[in-house]
TrEMBL record:
SUPFAM superfamilies: LuxS/MPP-like metallohydrolase (SSF63411). GO terms for molecular function: metal ion binding; metallopeptidase activity. Residues 89-225 form the Peptidase M16 N-terminal domain. It comes from the Bacteria. The lineage of its organism: Bacteria, Pseudomonadati, Pseudomonadota, Alphaproteobacteria, Sphingomonadales. Residues 239-424, 722-900 form the Peptidase M16 C-terminal domain. Belongs to the peptidase M16 family. Gene3D superfamilies: Metalloenzyme, LuxS/M16 peptidase-like. This is Insulinase family protein. It holds the Pfam family Peptidase_M16. Keywords: Hydrolase, Metalloprotease, Protease, Signal, Zinc. One of its GO terms (biological process) is proteolysis.
Length: 980
């Protein structure tokens, strides 16, 4: 059975000032000819009564009764249910049970190419009409409307906001036409083929080469070794409308189709519409049986005790070292029973115990940066146990031996009951939290769970069933059983391995075989001894603080509490998201806190500040004290503040607040997490240069901030010079500076939480002021008229990237204008994507976004970015300049504007049904009440505008100065004139 994951939350609120339920007369008119819901006949294919639903055949897993299942005479299967998260949305998935593994040799890439052509033109949609049509219905392309192709399936996704029966009827009609009757002709193929080839090009480079070679080694002799959804240039370029149609007719058949719908309407209405539009679908010709995907097989003469098969050493000078070996078994369909799932849970516990030991050894300063064990059923091709390790040096043999020694110990001796109970407690709290939040699980997530269940040939189970199965098997969680399951995980038909290294002289395939074949002594030193740690035994933060004021902020039931030491809290206690509490702590100066000299420690802070400890708790103690608890500790550096974030629950909230406050009031400065972060930074630096995207990740912020050293990625020389002592020197004063704001939104006891705040954040010593010089450090933008900046990458010669950026602003005063700039950027985005796809065959990577920092008064940007061919860089720059000029010269059409504002309205409306949305919007409001007042116009600011307003903003921001241009091209390439 598929295990439920975290859900999107919902709060039902009456917010008249946000106009969350504004009627959409224009949209209703667009679908007015659709059949009314009342005219639909009742569904006839529902599997009711004593009939076993198709998903639960041969299973004793209790059926999730919220789902209704149906199977039509033509073979189409469906699953439907009501779900009101978020309100008004209907999530639809159409799954075709065929992917790249179903392709013939000459068809490699066809499943993915067909996915594109389905969106190009079909029975009810003219050329290029699909995306604009869905946008007019309120669906954001890429977010609500998308598709994906894997080796085993192709899935079409639609999350329809503000769904009505009429809109839904139209959507089903369009989707049925797309699946059943896409239009295959030379013009459509000529339009989509360059886009698919662009996707293939963008995925190239060192990482892609490693992926391909790893796949060929690990899955040698199986179809998966030579079948990736992206295909090959040879097979894609040889595609014709006729060959694509042949693939479609062979696999896009009713017997291979599954339709899944979860949303805020009657599920029987969903079933009726599915039967209406898919019930008369007939396949062309006889049904084709799926091909055999093959089994992993050991070479002749392999040792049955350790059947070592293929090994490979891949030399990539710019990539960090990594080693993977896999113990592989044939994949077979299973009977998804309770007993089977109990076995999976025992497998998971066994892996968790080994992984904790491996992590403990790495933290102590071992020979590897990280190592992990995980079992995975890979695309119905193998049931494999993978071991991955990242050696810290050229001595990869020691790293491999150390990891294998830990595993050997797990295979030789059972774990302690304390180890088992510790991991079981982690599982229990995760499953219990999912059950608590069952009422607010998003329909999109529930639909995706069905899709995944079909893919792995298993069932779905309600959260209470999963939790009950787990708790009812506690007597089976014994050392002997875990040992047995550990041994099964490492028993297989063949063992294969790949080592990636920057230096070819380090190893070859034979050396890797030798290292894997050597016996290792079991090492039990990383077994974790029993140790009890309690929050009750930890020192107090200080004397509980005094409340100096408290009261409502004037929005909903949200309130503010201020303490005598200057700490402020914004609280909203509500029960709309059961079992969930969002916490955010804001303090300090953020990016402004650093100088050119201290900026390299910014990266290490993001990686190691939390791990360096809190008071008496090091990283291991932090893990132990939070075992069986729902707690988090994410650290972030924003434009004007530092942040701690966590998703917790009411029972753990007090201790969560203690940890956050203790990090500020009594930080610990362990050296090992810093040294480990330093090693990780050094190992990954060179990989940034292997692709245009990597170079942008490394350098774009630096150049868009006028080459300010504070925004530069630390160089290898700077990384080498870093020390734990200097780390503390940089970060210790920063944790003491600036006022503290705590935001807590969710289901919690208000009075108890206020008392805890007084004992934690209210008890902190008085905060030091942020120095004036720090506050004065603002980001700068490159001067107007600068020549094009050209950077180089060491990746594939057909890859490049181009960026054009214009400065905007920042701060709260013009926040409403920043929201309108989001509309302008989306107008720009739609035009740029159309131009680049039409003129250069670019994929979906051309994108435009707007940023507007709120905690500082400058630094915002509108930035257009595209990953393209080197020869298309000038075309990208010309297109961006032309679009900017046209937006400033004349207003957009009403239809073009609606294609942006309607999806934005729906995104905001849906987001505003969750606590996290309100927390994000109100952060900083304890010191700047303007943010509260600005909430009242938020939805209108993002979704209501005029063509003339867009033109004015384009004139102000896009036409006032030339855009700053940056290109990333292969080394030795000169395609941009006027560059420096």
């Amino acid at each position: 059975m598929t295990f439920p994951t975290g859900a999107l939350r919902r709060i039902s609120l009456a917010l008249p000032f946000l106009l969350l339920t504004t009627p959409l007369p224009a949209q209703e008119a667009a679908v007015g000819k659709s059949v009314a819901a009342s005219a639909l006949p009742a569904p006839t294919a529902l599997q009711t009564g004593g009939e076993t639903p198709w998903l639960y055949e041969d299973s004793d897993i209790p059926q999730d009764k919220d789902w209704l299942f149906g199977k039509m005479d033509n073979g189409v299967r469906y699953a439907v249910r009501h779900n009101g998260v978020p309100p008004g949305q209907v999530s639809i998935r159409v799954l075709m049970d065929a992917g790249s593994l179903h392709e013939l040799d000459h068809e490699q890439g066809y499943a993915h190419l067909l996915e594109h052509m389905v969106f190009r033109q079909s029975k009810y949609l003219g050329p290029g009409e699909a995306i604009p049509t869905f946008q007019r219905l309120g669906a954001t392309f890429g977010y609500d409307t998308n598709a994906s192709t894997t080796p085993t399936q192709t899935v079409y996704q639609m999350d329809l906001p503000e769904a009505t029966p009429a809109k839904l009827d139209e959507i089903f009609k369009l989707l049925s036409g797309m699946m059943r009757e896409p239009v295959f002709n030379k013009a459509n193929l000529a339009a989509d083929l360059p886009i698919v080839l662009a996707e293939k090009r963008e995925r190239g480079g060192a990482a892609s080469r490693v992926e391909e070679a790893t796949r060929k080694t690990l899955f040698s002799g199986q179809r998966l070794a030579i079948r990736l959804p992206i295909g090959t240039e040879e097979t894609l370029n040889s595609a014709t409308p006729e060959t694509i149609r042949a693939f479609h007719d062979r696999w896009y058949r009713p017997e291979n189709a599954i339709v899944v719908v979860a949303g805020d309407l009657d599920p029987k209405l969903f079933a009726s519409m599915i039967e209406k539009y898919f019930g008369d679908w007939k396949g062309k010709g006889p049904r084709t049986a799926p091909p055999a995907f093959g089994d992993p097989v050991a070479p002749a003469g392999a040792d049955p005790q350790f059947p070592l098969g293929e090994t490979a050493v891949l030399v990539e000078p710019d990539l960090p070292r990594s080693l993977t070996y896999a113990v592989m078994r044939p994949w077979r369909p299973v009977k998804d029973t309770i007993v089977y799932n109990e076995g999976l849970m025992l497998d998971s516990l066994a892996q968790a115990i080994i992984n904790r030991r491996l992590e403990a050894r790495a933290r102590a300063g071992g020979s590897y940066l990280y190592a992990q064990v995980y079992q995975e059923d890979v695309y119905r091709s193998t049931d494999a146990t993978f071991v991955t390790v990242a050696p810290l040096s050229q001595d990869w043999q020691s790293a491999l031996a150390d990891v294998r020694a830990v595993i050997a110990d797990a295979l030789a001796e059972p774990p302690t009951q304390e180890e088992i109970d510790r991991e079981a407690a982690e599982f229990d709290v995760a499953l219990a939290s999912t059950l608590e939040q069952a009422s607010v699980r998003a329909g999109s997530e529930l639909a995706d769970n069905i899709v995944e269940a079909v893919n792995i040939r298993e069932t779905v189970a309600a959260p209470d069933v999963v939790l009950n199965v787990f708790r009812n098997m506690r007597d089976k969680m014994t050392p002997a059983n875990i040992l047995a399951h550990t041994r099964t995980l490492f028993d297989g038909d063949v063992v294969r391995s790949v080592y990636v290294t920057p230096q070819g002289e380090e190893a070859d395939a034979a050396a890797l075989r030798t290292a894997l074949s050597q016996s290792v002594d079991a090492d039990g030193t990383s077994r974790l001894a029993a140790q009890t740690i309690s929050f009750d035994d930890l020192p107090k933060i200080g004397k509980p603080g005094t409340i100096v004021s408290e009261g409502p902020i004037g929005l909903l039931e949200i309130e503010q509490v201020n303490f005598a030491n200057g700490a402020r809290a914004i609280l909203w206690a509500n029960d709309a998201e059961p079992g969930r509490v969002a916490v955010k702590v804001r303090f300090g100066a953020g990016e402004r806190a650093f100088t050119a000299d201290t900026a390299p420690y910014k990266l290490l802070g993001e990686m190691a500040l939390v791990g360096s400890g809190v008071g008496e708790l090091g990283q291991e103690e932090l893990d132990r004290i939070t075992t069986g608890r729902k707690m988090g500790f994410d650290f972030g550096i924003e434009d004007g503040v530092f942040t701690f974030d966590a998703q917790t629950r009411s029972a753990d909230l007090a201790d969560q607040l203690y940890l956050f406050a203790a990090k500020l009031g009594m930080p610990r400065w362990d050296a090992n997490p810093v040294l480990r972060a330093k090693a990780a930074a050094a190992l990954t630096y060179e990989s940034f240069g292997t692709s245009p995207g990597g170079v942008l990740n490394r350098d774009l912020d630096y150049y868009l901030n006028d080459a300010d050293a504070r925004f530069a990625m630390p160089t290898p020389e700077q990384i080498a010079a870093m020390t734990p002592e200097q780390f503390r020197t940089v970060w210790e004063p920063l944790l003491k500076q600036g006022p503290v704001e705590v935001l807590i939104f969710g289901e919690f006891d208000r009075d108890a939480t206020v008392r805890t705040l007084a004992e934690t954040f209210g008890a902190l010593p008085a905060r030091e002021p942020i120095p004036a010089a720090t506050l004065a450090r603002m980001p700068a933008f490159p001067d107007a008229g600068e020549p094009i900046r050209v950077l180089n990458h060491r990746g594939d010669p057909d890859q490049a990237a181009a960026v054009v950026s214009w400065p905007t602003g920042g701060g709260v005063a013009d926040l409403r204008e920043s929201r309108q700039l989001e509309i302008l950027s989306q107008l720009f985005n739609n035009r740029l994507m159309d131009v680049m796809r039409e003129e250069s065959g670019a994929s979906y990577t051309p994108q435009v976004g707007a940023s507007w920092p709120v905690d500082i008064d400058t630094g915002g940007q509108i930035t257009a970015l595209g990953q393209i061919k080197p020869e298309d860089v000038p075309t990208f720059f010309a297109a961006a300049d032309k679009i900017a000029s046209e937006l400033a010269a004349s207003p957009p059409s009403a239809d073009e504007l609606e294609r942006v504002t309607e999806p934005l309205k729906q995104l905001i409306s849906r987001a505003s049904t969750g606590n996290s949305f309100w927390l994000y919007q109100l952060q900083g409001a304890s010191s700047d009440p303007r943010r509260i007042a600005l909430m009242r116009s938020l939805l209108n600011d993002y979704s209501q505008t005029t063509p003339e307003r867009m033109q004015q903003l384009a004139q102000k921001y896009l036409a006032a100065r030339p855009g700053y241009k940056l290109a990333v091209v292969p080394e030795g390439t000169a395609v941009v004139t006027g560059a420096k």
